[in-house]
Specification:
heterodimer; A: mainly alpha; two-stranded antiparallel ribbon; B: mainly alpha; 52% helix
Chain lengths: 238, 163
């Protein structure tokens, strides 16, 4: 019984096929899956913003205004949590939408507008952070009062003694300081995954890196945050 | 619980979603965006604005036929030629009028003593043309605009003729 079960490119086991080297099978399978994934990424997708995009490209400025209104809250959260400064966030947002408006005619639709605008936002914010360096000041937004009704916040205050003992502003300051101690690239991944709730696949498209890179950055960032917040656990009230 | 695990870190970081900008920020953002776009546009040089408008026109109305570009250039040249002809034709009509000698002359007095008190004083006036035309002055008249010389003598100063 020299015939060996061989893996096909689809990952299903087929009986009776001649044996091939496992490495060849695995590489071909991986290449085929990667290729199919890349093809899927390159295909133009059905985009809920497509109508607004078409109207914007034809010269309808009000259509772009609607896109601005739609994406401003989300992009604000992304940029703010990367910069921890409200004034810088405001300036960056203006530049992001200005750049998007100028470049929108070159947008071919290979990705969704959501991915495209987030890519612009992340890249411009990272460039800004490189120029800003370590000379910055926290300029934090106020915490919305509805946090008092948040289930996770209630659980955190109920179970975790440091969180329970520290007031809300102290907690906010500690979290932001811990975030700012991360590198810009790690902070971007943490912001998109933990705060904005994006899946790994979407983050990899925005950053144009593999999902493995996203996962490794998240793992490293979590370890860093654990160390920083461990100090908070030891000294909950400064 | 001695340390924060990944799940707890994730829960804590999700609380940052409650950090919000001041009230009304998102409502005013679009207005601020428009204002900055206008300011940026005004800071651009005129040639840049014209170039952007031309690009915008090209994208909005895509011209597929290459023959339209020479036609557009020819139209611009024809318009420019017509406008330039109209501008340069206007001074020629005034030049034609200036070349004819004006009928202006001033009398020259031959009698040094002449007063208004002497009745019937007559004087012979020798009329001399104010301007003498020759070929050299024609070009001068062609370029300078006409001027009205108030050298004409009133009727009362005209001599009475003796018969």
């Amino acid at each position: 019984m020299d015939r060996v079960l061989a893996l096909s490119a689809t990952g299903r086991i087929r009986r009776g096929e001649p044996a091939r080297r496992i490495s060849d099978l695995l590489s071909s399978g991986l290449d085929a899956r990667a290729k199919s994934k890349r093809q899927a990424m390159d295909q133009p997708r059905t985009d809920e913003d497509q109508e607004l995009l078409t109207r914007t490209k034809s010269g309808d400025a009000s259509a772009f205004d609607q896109l601005v209104i739609k994406y401003t809250p989300r992009l604000y959260g992304l940029v703010y949590n990367m910069t921890a400064n409200h004034e810088d966030t405001n300036d960056l947002l203006q530049d992001i939408f200005s750049k998007a408006y100028k470049a929108i005619r070159g947008f071919r639709g290979k990705s969704t507008f959501y991915t495209w605008i987030h890519s612009i936002a992340v890249n411009m914010t990272l460039n800004f952070l490189k120029k800003r360096g370590r000379r910055f000041q926290l300029s934090l937004d106020d915490v919305d009062a509805s946090i008092q009704n948040d289930k996770e916040f209630l659980e955190a205050t109920a179970t975790s003694s440091p969180v329970r003992e520290a007031d809300l502003s102290e907690l906010q300051r500690r979290l932001n300081e811990a975030m700012m101690k991360l590198s810009d690239d790690h902070r971007a991944v943490v912001t998109m995954f933990h705060i904005q709730g994006m899946p790994h696949a979407e983050i990899s498209k925005i950053l144009r890196v593999s999902e493995g890179t996203v996962r490794s950055r998240l793992f490293y960032a979590n370890r860093q945050l654990q160390n920083y917040l461990d100090e908070f656990r030891k000294n909950p009230v400064s | 619980m001695d340390e924060f695990n990944d799940n707890e870190i994730s829960k804590l970081l999700r609380l940052k979603r409650y950090e919000q900008p001041p009230p009304g920020y998102f409502e005013n953002f679009l207005h601020e965006f428009h204002r900055r776009q206008r300011d940026e546009l005004l800071r651009q040089p005129l040639w840049r604005i014209c170039l952007d408008r031309a690009h915008e026109f090209k994208f909005r109305f895509p011209v597929r036929s290459l023959a339209s570009y020479p036609a557009a250039v020819a139209a611009v040249l024809v318009c420019g030629a017509i406008i330039s002809l109209k501008i340069y034709q206007q001074p020629e009509t005034t030049q034609v009028a200036l070349q004819s000698p004006p009928a202006l002359s001033t009398p020259t007095s031959t009698d040094a003593q002449w007063t208004l008190a002497s009745p019937g004083a007559t004087r012979t006036f020798r009329m001399q043309p104010l301007h003498r035309f020759d070929a050299s002055t024609q070009t001068h008249w062609a370029t300078t605009p006409p001027r009205y010389v108030l050298d004409s003598v009133p009727v009362s100063y005209e001599p009475t003729f003796r018969f």
